[in-house]
Amino acid sequence: MLSDDRPTAVADRLARVGGVVGVALGGSRARGVARPDSDVDLGLYYRGPLDVPGLRKLAAELATDRDGGATPELTEPGGWGRWVDGGGWLTIDGVPVDWLYRDLDRVAAACAAARRGALDFGFQVGHPFGFAEVAYAGELALGRVLADPDGELGRLRAGLDPYPDALAAAFADRLDEARFLLGAVTKSARRGDLVFVAGTLFRAVGLAAHAVAAAQHRWMITEKGLVDEVGALPGTPAGFAGRARAVLSGLTDAPDVLGAAVEHAVALVAEADDFCRRRRSEQP
């Protein structure tokens, strides 16, 4: 079992590896919503050449791999794709611990994008909704800094408090995309194109959930658990999560079933839009 102070001790060791500028605890453990089986996510914020051999040496000293092997595998930067970057899945003291590379200059650019309301989603394996660049900012805003010798992570975090109004507006504006998609998918619903319609509904529900969270100035990092997490926020309309899940429940290729699901999604997006407008009107 990983003791409470063990992540900080590991972070201190990581911060001494060449290229590592700071380390932060992320994921569900940083947000206080972890399950007993949740991984420990450590973000390794680096600049310039990252001493991957040094990281591998440290990993061999501290950890095993997930399969119980003696030598954990760590990628080079970019080994997991453009957005997730790279790292390794380790086991330390019997607990799954992920070392996740984060290019600090890219994170700083994402923080600046969040402050000015620049929002875009990129393709990344493992993220069927798409990876939002501003997720890097959200990771830092929600994370717990464990090692930050020069204070760079702390300064970036400070620039994200309070949550940027421009970013909340950008998520609300993306509801236009949901409305367009739902308007365009009706023909496919009449044709019984289950897979295409289901993908469109997933996208529309995700956009609605993101908008509702952003209207409350809450960071959402990933689509995993998104609807339930947004539904649990104190300001979210009662029953929102249930209505969001109902859009995708019981889908078949029957045109009437798909048509009804599209109508439910249209109503959900309208609800999200109304919520965003009301929240903006309540701001001082």
TrEMBL record:
Q: Which UniProt keywords apply?
A: Transferase
Q: Which GO terms describe its molecular function?
A: nucleotidyltransferase activity
Keyword set includes Transferase: yes
Q: Which organism is it from?
A: Microlunatus kandeliicorticis
Q: Where is the Polymerase nucleotidyl transferase domain?
A: 14-57
Annotated protein name in UniProt: Putative nucleotidyltransferase
**Top-level taxon of origin:** Bacteria
Tell me the SUPFAM superfamilies matching this sequence: Nucleotidyltransferase
